Amino acid sequence: MDIKLRAVVILAAALGCSTAAFAERGFTNEFLSGATRPKSIALLPAEATITRQQVIETTGLIDESVVFGAQFNADVAKVLADKGYEVQIVDSDRINADRALQEYVVDAKRAYDEMIARYRPKKLPDRIYNAGDSARLLASHLGVDAIAFSKLSITITPAGKAIVSALIGGTTSGANSMIGIVDGDTADLEVVQIAIAIVAPGEKTPEEIAAYVATLAAGNTKRLPGADPSQRIEVAVSDDEVLDEAETLIRE
């Protein structure tokens, strides 16, 4: 699934909506009302891709992807805990130590990927997206109310490469992420939140990449209401912010 394309669709559609309606996008009505709000959430390992666009070739940095994927989950977990959720971070060490968990994670991720490939934002309230028995089995095995699946991608383009890409077309710098939350009892998709970050051309230090990861984690969780079912969305998005985000994405 092209996260960036999905973000463009969501943000562009928001231009014709009220800011309150935009803030509520990406949640089922039942999640917003508190009826399906979980108390506990398990964060599966984030599927992270850190790519450096070079003048000659593109290099994917596997080690960095693991490190920054772990940071993303840690950042998300902190925000969720602050909002009152009980959070489990399901890391690779835990998965590798539990053969049954390995099978559940593989099956649940496959089912989630197949489901999210068909995702359309306007259809989420219709509750037509379901991750199936594998997600329910995983949630039961972990003893949680919901499972969070996440992906993030950061592309770093040297200044010279960025100029060439601008002239002839091609991949440019940018960062995006998505979190999907699936109900552990029903396996219904309850939440999809997308975040973007503008990455200036030029090489980046690990500290700079970490800052982008933190920005994405914050963007994916800022609209999420607290675990208390009576709580509602905390962040109202201004028309200017929506326009700026949409226009920036469309220009890239």
Notes on the structure:
The protein is an alpha/beta fold and 252 residues long. The protein has one domain: Double Stranded RNA Binding Domain (2-Layer Sandwich), CATH 3.30.160. 46% of the residues lie in helices and 19% in strands. It has ten helices and seven strands. Strands 1, 2, 3, 4, 5, 6 and 7 form a seven-stranded mixed sheet that branches. The protein is globular, with a radius of gyration of 18 Å. It starts with a helix and ends with a helix.
Would you kindly provide a brief summary of this structure?
This protein is an alpha/beta fold. The protein has helices spanning 3-14, 19-24, 29-33, 62-82, 92-96, 99-116, 133-142, 159-168, 206-221, 239-251, and strands at residues 40-43, 47-53, 58-60, 86-89, 146-156, 174-183, 189-197.
